[in-house]
Every structure is written in C-alpha cells, then in structure tokens.
User: Fold Threonylcarbamoyl-AMP synthase from Xiphorhynchus elegans.
Amino acid sequence: RYCHVDVPDELLRDLLPGPVTLVLRRSEELNKDLNPFTSLVGVRIPNHPFMRDLARACSGPLALTSANISSQGSTLTVSEFQDLWPQLSLIIDGGPIGDIQSPECRLGSTVVDLSVAGKFSIIRPGCALTPTVEILRQKYGLEPESS
Assistant:
C-alpha cells in the first residue's frame, strides 16, 4: 500500500520479520511529508512481539527512528538512551529488543535497496548482512548494484 513491491512475496517472507530494512519505491499513498526529498522509503517489520502488536494497533504506517544519535551504537533498552528522554514526547518500554550482551545486536538492521529490478544495494551492513546477501544472491539471483 505504501510502496511498490517488485520482488517475490517469498523474498519478503525470507527477510521479514527480522533485522532487515527494505528500501523500495514509495507509492503515492504514502504521506508526502515522510522523506519528502526521495522517491524511496525504508520498510521494516521487526521480529519483536511488542512492536508488532503496536503496529497492528495503528491504522497506518509508523515512522520511527532509532533511539540513538546517528553513527552511535543502537540502544537495546530504554535506560540506554535516557539522555534523550527530555527531547521525546513519549517513551514506551516494551522490553529489550535484543541480546544486550551481543555486539551484533547493536549494529542495527541491515538496510538493503531493492528499488532496481534484479539488483540490490547494501546501504548499511547491519547485523544481518551475511544471511541477507546469501538469500538475495543465491536464492533469488539478484546481483549487487554497481556504484
């Protein structure tokens, strides 16, 4: 509804839900104020029960950002971004979003651009890079987009 999906449904099921953000061409139905200077939009379905319940309770898409300052490690609990609380309107503690002892969990999602047919481009390696690239190349025959 909010983006043009030009990949097989099975590919979506192989990568989502999970720690992968798919960048696709946005549709006209998506609010033009969300990422207004690009024709693309990132779509993620986290594999976290609280976030999935929250998304189901909303009538439209959720536009979210990570609870950290850009280029810093991802936070996994609300107490880890306590310094940002004064700048926020609402904080909901749905529990940890990963293994707080695992450095890989702090890499954030793997962000992959699938907006070009037959190609993919890794925007951010993130925590699921290797399995994501394997799925895209080996199972679906997609090729890395040349820079």
Observations:
- The chain is about 20% helix and 20% strand.
- The chain has a mean pLDDT of 91.
